């Protein structure tokens, strides 16, 4: 008896009450199923015409995929029959789909995330993992193919992120960037043809929305430095913030990891985590005053200056990451109280220490020196960053016209 393939909706729902679409391989009245990874509500299945009803929001893409999968299965069945291989339904299925593993979006995404985790890029790992899950939850499939990720899919996905998840334009762009990165990997692996690439000219163009970076001005910095009546926790939070600011806005993760051994000859010598760049800067007098407050707790030269990392197993990268996240949240909580006592109306967090340095430096420091202070690999990054804080020329130009 000849074998055959047919599209079916399996009547075994998952935990969410959705039913799986599959290709049924039959031989001698015995069947086996290849699940394509998509699930739908029972009401969307047209049993008579063997297709997803038009009322389903993704009907066109799903039906196109089903036709494609069925065509591929029938072609391979004919090839097996031409070879006169008398196989069971189960063995036929194994032969048909033996090379299908590792070709879906979820498989390539997993390899991408595993690489981030292995390289201890944990901040990006956790954020990109959430973004990958957004894609898989939207598609309702763990077997989403790259061929399905076309321009219309991405437009629908953008709408979903905005209307259903309430994400900002910046967050939506970050989600698209992750998809683009994984799609490019699939192209390099030969999983999908470059001509199907849905990004760039003629497709979805990724553009970052303009964002307003706001830091503290000179008067607000003085108020922050001099405010009295702070609790011990508030003083500590202010110390960490100011220490970051005094070194051109070192990221909080790097500040908390600084050890006493990183200080020598009145200089801070430290290799940053984010880009492994070596930082070597003269320690300002104001920073020495902060260091003095913590010197009594110094156990040895290898000890951390600030207390947050003292009890952490530094060899467990995930524990370090979680501890820094928790510490940052706590510091931001106390910084909000400090700002209120200092009568600063802006939101003060660890992140804006860097913005504050940019605000006050404005155009006072040559751009090449700012690149060094910010530890940017590209001067273009420095120019784009500092543009957020350089307003004097524009202000002077405006005054020259309206002050008559």
TrEMBL record:
Check the record and name the Pfam families matching this protein.
Arm-DNA-bind_5, Phage_int_SAM_5, Phage_integrase
List residues of the Tyr recombinase domain.
211-403
- Its signal peptide is none
Q: What is this protein called?
A: Tyrosine-type recombinase/integrase
Q: What start-end ranges are recorded for coiled-coil regions in this protein? A: 63-90
> Which residue numbers delimit the Core-binding (CB) domain?
103-187
- InterPro entries in UniProt: Arm-DNA-bind_5, CB, DNA_brk_join_enz, Integrase-like_cat_sf, Integrase_catalytic, Integrase_recombinase_N, SAM-like_dom, Tyrosine_recombinase_XerCD
In the record, the note on similarity to other proteins reads: Belongs to the 'phage' integrase family.
Keywords in UniProt for this one? Answer: Coiled coil, DNA integration, DNA recombination, DNA-binding
Q: Which organism is it from?
A: Gelatiniphilus marinus
